[in-house]
Structure to design on (239 residues):
């Protein structure tokens, strides 16, 4: 295992349960709005989440945290609202990794900020942060804007991302659906060819965001997807 991406649920830090993986390299993912964390709706839930993130970060000695732009459910959140929230996290000692979003939320109604390279540039120019490009999010946004998904991914690559989120899904959808590799219709080989041939020649860091399929505490489906990813990354298959 190269590293583990840990999704932080507020109030769940327990050093005893983490001891077995303490020496595994990690990157953290901040909670979603479903767990009360929203950088543009900063309330007690936000404060509790930040406290838990800091507990995990201190325990592992790793400050990098992937954080979604915030959500205003009735209107689109503004750059200023997001920047203000990210700066609070910065001041708390968190090393930000901002993630791109689809344009439409999973509820099919919410309009999300951070779905285009230009919106992300506004955030990246205002706060010190790396970028995580979620390939599924980029494809959904491209479909919303009626752009070619592969060309749209190229635009995100121009921002020199630090890492990627990867899964399979519905190539024509505007809403995010995570599927195991090979179970959707994303052009996985074409996408990975782009990621491995970037001009910046950065190390390719990929977190798989594939479903557990009921094996919530096990790794069986993860191991299958890792094997599938390695098969696709075989240089002979990328020619």
């Amino acid at each position: 295992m190269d590293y583990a991406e840990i999704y932080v649920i507020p109030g769940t830090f327990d050093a005893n349960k983490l001891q077995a993986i303490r020496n595994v390299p990690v990157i953290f993912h901040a909670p979603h709005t479903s767990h009360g964390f929203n950088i543009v709706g900063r309330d007690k839930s936000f404060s509790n989440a930040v406290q838990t993130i800091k507990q995990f970060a201190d325990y592992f000695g790793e400050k990098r945290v992937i954080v979604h732009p915030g959500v205003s459910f009735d209107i689109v959140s503004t750059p200023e609202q997001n920047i203000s929230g990210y700066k609070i996290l910065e001041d708390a000692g968190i090393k930000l990794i901002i993630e791109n979003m689809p344009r439409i939320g999973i509820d099919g109604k919410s309009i999300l900020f951070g779905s285009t390279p230009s919106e992300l540039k506004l955030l990246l120019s205002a706060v010190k942060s790396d970028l995580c490009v979620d390939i599924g999010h980029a494809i959904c946004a491209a479909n919303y804007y009626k752009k070619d998904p592969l060309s749209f991914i190229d635009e995100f690559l121009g921002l020199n991302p630090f890492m990627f989120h990867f899964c399979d899904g519905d190539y024509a959808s505007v809403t995010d659906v995570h599927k195991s590799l090979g179970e959707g219709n994303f052009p996985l080989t074409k996408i990975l060819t782009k990621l491995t041939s970037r001009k910046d020649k950065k190390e390719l860091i990929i977190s798989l965001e594939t479903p557990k399929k009921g094996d919530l505490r096990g790794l069986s489906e993860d191991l299958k997807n890792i094997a599938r990813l390695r098969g696709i990354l075989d240089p002979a298959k990328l020619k």
Q: What stands out?
A: The chain has a mean pLDDT of 92. Helices lie at 15-18, 44-60, 79-91, 117-126, 135-144, 149-157, 188-196, 220-233.
